[in-house]
Amino acid sequence: MRAPSSTITAHTNSTYRIAPSRIHRSSTSLPSPPSTKLLMQTHATLLRSGEIHDAIIAGKLISNIANSHPSNLPYALTFLSHPTNIPINAFAWNSLIRGFAHSASPENSISLYRRMLADGFFPNNYTYPFLLKASSYLEDRRVGLSLHATIIRRGLDGMDPFIQTSLINFHAVLVSVDTARQLFDESLVRDVTSWNALIKGYVACGQHMNAIYMFQAMQDCGPICGDEITMLSVVSACAHLGALEMGRWVHSYIERNRLVLNLNLGTALINMYAKCGEIDSAKSLFWEMQEKDVRTWSVMINGLAIHGHAKESLVLFAEMQRFGVVPDSVTITALLIACSHGGMVERGRTIFSRMRMDYGIEPTIEHYGCIVGLLGRAGKLDEALALIRRSSLKPDIVLWGSLLVDCMVHKNIGMGEIVVKEILKLDPSNAGAHVFLSNMYATSGKWDVVQEVRNFMKEQMIHKPPGSSLIEVNGVVHEFLSGDSSHPQFDGIYKMLDEICRLVSLKGHKPLVGGVSFDINDEDREVCLSQHSEKLAVAFGLISTNPGSVIRIIKNLRICRDCHAVMKLVSEAFGRIIIVRDCNRFHHFSKGSCSCGDYW
DNA sequence: GGAACTGTAA
């Protein structure tokens, strides 16, 4: 079990409420950047008046052009080779570097920096944040590391909060979040942006719990208060963790601190509610939002999809188009997920085959992942394999892995072997491929081959990542691993687990041991099965929450057949709604049945 | 003149 040593108490008594008066209406009231035409007119006027030869005036013009829109960058660059000797100062160089740092070709910022040095200009404390920003988008982290070395050599590290935050961000993105943390700890000045850079860094590398801890530490340190950008990261962390109580608390924090529920934050909150199983809260917030962009719609369409509301998801997509919002690649992914979980094979096929024609969106590996999942789940394995073979994209491990799971579910050993070979070509020590190989042989009773695979894995030290389930009780997130006995309430949990086994067996449940291969006899295999992480989590939920309350579990893998059957029976026997989010979708168990209709 | 900014396959 991993639980916060100290936790943010979720204010479970505060009701979930939206304050419409504080919902951000629109960004149209913001002044729009000067148009290209206007910039050109100003340029012409300054040329005529001769004021263009004033370095400060020229610098302002270059800055306005370079930062108006990325498409104006070539125009801004013409000033560097202008025949009329327009003076260029450090401010103008910085503006150009800044413009490219936020463009699709950030490497140009670095070229400009080199040119700036060659022309005898010294970068100042404004230059480095832009350069570090550009470096964080490059593949080669040596560029940013070399800049960091220059910053140290010039004695600028730890002196300027902007440089420090940029360094934290660069390290979090391209080096490691640990070095980012070190830089943060060493900073003499911390402001909300440096906290934000670090919190975002933890979210970006998947250390969501650490992101929450940092947010908590930020409050403990005072007097700095989180702003809208802090909340984006914190809400995103809650969504990943499935930490609903924490997410609700954060929502109320946003309201208490009168933060603006703007487009981005609203979208993040909708996503959080959907990913935490509260699809109705997600829906109400979605319709409350005055301004919605393609992300807001996609988040909602995806939310409905993972809850198995396929038809509603497609209806919302139609609605989105009526509102004139143009779908993007992620929207199409969400639609395919909806079809996949709703078993709408034909509709999914059509969307996939027409996406280029209908929406001008080129299929990516993610779309292939969805369609292979859709076909595989429906047992159309040959079609899925043919599709992968026909694709011009190079299939990755995720794509093959998805097909492999379906080969196992549909007991297609022949194709499973083909797929395993493909996976092992990409990653010879892939744990999943070895485990599935072993499982496939176990299913067909080839125990000598099972032993061979097992020995090989032992020799090569190949371990399958353990199943993990998270459950949040009173604002504390508890993690259970398969066969875990480290929880302080171990005794109570295992007593409850025995009780569950007794009750489900009275209902006629027979353990579905097909997915367990590493244990020789059936009894051991049943024990292994009975200690799957989601069963430990549900047992803990039953003993630590009020009778009748909803139990929410987040599982890192796909829920197994046996756990699925047991959850249905537990929901009936204990009169509980159990909501399990596995790595694919939500399962709402109630009164002995599941919202997925046993199709997942 | 500057740093931090939400959603996708398994």
Automatic annotation (TrEMBL):
InterPro entries: DYW_dom, E_motif, PPR_At4g14850-like_plant, PPR_rpt, TPR-like_helical_dom_sf. Residues 508-600 form the DYW domain. PPR repeats lie at residues 89-123, 191-225, 293-327. The keyword Transcription regulation does not apply. Keywords: Repeat. It holds the Pfam family PPR. This is DYW domain-containing protein. It comes from Dendrobium thyrsiflorum. The lineage of its organism: Eukaryota, Viridiplantae, Streptophyta, Embryophyta, Tracheophyta.
